[in-house]
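Entry:
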Amino acid sequence: MKKASLTILVILMIFLLFLASCSPENQTPTPDIENPPNDKELPEEKNYVDGTYTLMIYMCGSNLESRAGLATKNITEMLSAEIPENTKVIIQTGGATAWRKYDISPVYSSRYEILNGNLSLIEQNINANMGDYSTLSDFLVWGEENYPAEHRSIIFWDHGGGSMNGVCFDENFHNDSLSLLEIRAALAMVNQTINNRFYEFIGFDACLMATYDTANILRNHANYMIASEELEPGSGWDYKVLLENLGKEDFYTKVLNAYAKKQETKTTYTLSAIKLSEFHKVDEVIYGLVEQINYNLSYVGHALSEGKEFGTKGLGGGNTNLFDLGLLAKAIGIPYDFSDFIINVNGSAHETATGLSLYFPTTQKEKLKEYAKICPNLIYSDFLEDYFNNEPETTIFFTDAGFTDDNIHLSFTLSNISKKYVKTVGYELHSYAGSSETGKLYVVGTDNDVSFSNGVYTVDFEGRWVFLNDMLLHCDVHEEKPTHTTFSAPVMINGEMSFLLFAYFKETKKIIVEGYITADDTTSRINELSTGTEVTIVYEDPVPEGENPYYEEGTIVWGEDSIIAVKYLEAERYQYIPYVIDIYGNIFYGDTASLYFDGTTCTIEAIAAG
């Protein structure tokens, strides 16, 4: 009996100890991502050796690495660099199901130092989700403890999704990503552990991250932010130049210029370096925008049209809702000058972009409450809430939805009150070509070549469209400017549904192909279209029989003789439908014009109510 009593006593003591360990006082608290720790309560600052520098690269390989080896290509650039004295470059890898080079394991979170031109493994840990803030904060604290330095910086490497979707999409953890709130929480947690408030720069070698919200969250943690407003080309930054110039006075200029040189065959690239200590000047522009729009809604449509929405855009939605802030301000008449704290480089299709984008959710109104948690500027988030909550039931009224004065062009008119709500006007083109064989009417695409004069909108369709070799491309216009027009076209790339991206320059009549993105990841980096790639033309069926709205027309093998050009359409019957998109993202259709194109001239045969 005594032995049994002793056993019961021991079990009881273990159970009590277990309960104590599980009590709230003994648990590690889960940080509140929306309300991170108070940055004011910081530990004592460490003493660092003068002139030392540590660069931490948070490299989430994702499908950029597993499919194309883009991360290891950038690592190869790093290994070729002559790194300055007293400078350490450390990398955390993860997030990819496979790595192409350097024996990087997809089943571990690995940490490396670039040492004498080699990738030196420091440690491996159990695979951790790189889309989780705790993985990021653990890496940053580890870097500080093991590589203390007077100067330090961070680079996030991977996909980027702007204000709403964040960065670093981990392929091993259901593509979970770091939201801006998680980045803010991770940086605050690091400050609670180590007093190292300011990084020299925090950079995003990723798409769409040069947003007002990203910079606003980083302004209390870094001197500079480096990021792109637009989708990035797959090859990313020039890491040889970047590493060799760490700590130099002209570092940011050299990094941006090297990026521009690396992407010089592209037209839509952007990259900016923003001095965050001057960011209060951006807030002043935001307040001006809010005040002016509240005063007069008629400014909005013109501003959004001029504001260069970045990323992919389409008539059916899926837009990024990220507009260039400086161009919005210019269109509305708000004074701004970013030149003393933003430097940027742009491709020719974005030569007027100012380096910072603003989220204005015309096609994502359902995300307003989520965005209010992300945006640190309550005045702006409250404005958006009021703006969309006060949306009229109907904004666009056609006084005449379709008529013709010359039997060549369709025109339409809107009520006077409607005009202040207009954002974009365009038309959708359908073709009957080949319908005798396929029995299908198909969508050729969209264009916004619509003129406006004396209160009348006129569709300026002249029978010309875009062809790949001799096959008609279904394509949608993204942006039309006096100098150029940018497009996308749905295609199959090596059997995978994708979108081809290209720009047409009016003066030279030349088309430059940017590359392609996959349909399941429209905020992806832009993939190169290499020789030997199979490109299958697809057309959209306006009345699809199954779930897939596209059907295949023909395939070419991409090569030096592949030509994308604007040509006259075949002599055949076509129809087009004008549309108006309002400042809230709603689409309104006019009447349908059915016409015959004889190879040079269009003749409208009928106009039907929409």
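The first helix runs from residue 2 to 21.
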